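For reproducibility, we list the full input for the copper (II) ion complex.
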Amino acid sequence: MKVISALLMGVAVAALTTAATPKPKPHPASTSRLVMVRMDIDFKPHKRSSFGKISGYDPAELHVHMGDRIQFVNPDDENHTATGMAYTGDQVPANYKFQSDFTKPHGRLIDASEWGTGNVRAHGGKSPIFTTKQVGHYFYACGYHIGIGQIGVIVVEP
Ligand SMILES: [Cu+2]
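The corresponding predicted structure, in tokenized form, follows.
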């Protein structure tokens, strides 16, 4: 009897230990997606964002998994950019000034640096493809229209 209860205890402890240590698993690479973000200053956010006032991209708040790839397309009748902000706050920064030339493409990795599409031309222009390798949230904006609030955020989840 003692042996059986000791065994049962062991099973219970093992079950508890397993349940208590959920590990976030990286999204399998085989299911990584190519996600498109449309650029148009007339796009309004679909919902209020917890990151603050964002608009001008669809979706303005994009959630992806680590390993997904992102491409920006411009169906608007004006040129736009998607240029990363070297900023790690929780809310959209006020009066951000780009340090780099936003008209030129920079980098291929979405992070808290000034990666960027460069100029994406009106009427169907497409950006280079960017990759996501770091969990976090990353603000970006249009170099031409940041002053009128064309700002988006990419949330990279495991
Ligand atoms: Cu723009």
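The chain has a mean pLDDT of 87. Residues 48 and 54 are 9 Å apart (CA to CA). Both points were considered when choosing residues for closer inspection.
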